[in-house]
Amino acid sequence: MLRGVGAAELPPALLDVVVRRYGGLLLVHPADWEQLRHEEGGAGRGVPYWARPWPSGLALAAASPPLGRVLELGCGLGAPGIAAALAGADVLATDGSSDAVAFAAHSFALNEAIGEVAVADWAEQGEALIERGPWDAVLAADVFYTRANVDTGLRLFGALVERGGEIRLADPGRAGTRDFLAAARHSFTLRSEAAGAVTLHTLVRR
Questions:
Q1: What's the whole-model pTM score?
Q2: For residues 163 and 204, what is the distance between their CA atoms, to the nearest angstrom?
Q3: Within-domain flag for 115
Q4: Has residue 90 been placed in a domain?
């Protein structure tokens, strides 16, 4: 049950869903993101960024997937985590939005991918995610859109992986990501490659 309430109490656009193929993955998501954003805004709730497949998430999903124990932060619809799970990784996909986690769980099932999904705000539950580690790889698509997220990433990412562990980021060119990468070079080696309008960054813990 979404949000722990009946269907009559949910925004109609949240229940009007479609299943579409993106690359090799099937994703279920609200059909009209703009309408959902309008309804959520009218109810005083935040923008449902999770509810559409963004280019960064799709690019990260299309890249060569990591193996081992994989954590996805801010998973949204879960595409990168699903791709990793299909390749054989042991995946935990997390998001601060319970709606996102519910939709991601359905998409895991649609793709017959085995993985764990959980509601976890990486700023607030970072210590719990560290305790579940260390992770072989951490996936994050377009997460540095606020200064607070940059600061959280700098504090958290080094503790999530041990030496040789990877942080894989996909980003559309945000200033926050440039700030994060500049600071992270002290602890990580960096490799970057273009993927259309998105850049994929792989950081390996020294």
A1: 0.96
A2: 8
A3: yes
A4: yes
Residue range(s) defining the domain that contains residue 116: 54-205
pLDDT tens column, 42-63: 999 999 999 999 999 999 999 9
Residues forming beta bridges with residue 29, ordered by sequence position: 18
**Residue 105 counted as domain residue:** yes
Number of structural domains in the chain: 1
Q: CA 153 to CA 160: how far, in whole Å? A: 10
User: Are the C-beta atoms of residues 171 and 32 closer than 8 Å to each other?
Assistant: no
Residue 39 lies in a domain: no
The pLDDT tens digits of the residues spanning 121-139 come to 999 999 999 999 999 999 9
Write the CA distances from 1 to 4, 5, 59, 104, integer angstroms: 5, 7, 30, 14
CATH code of residue 71: 3.40.50.150
> First-to-last CA distance in the chain?
43
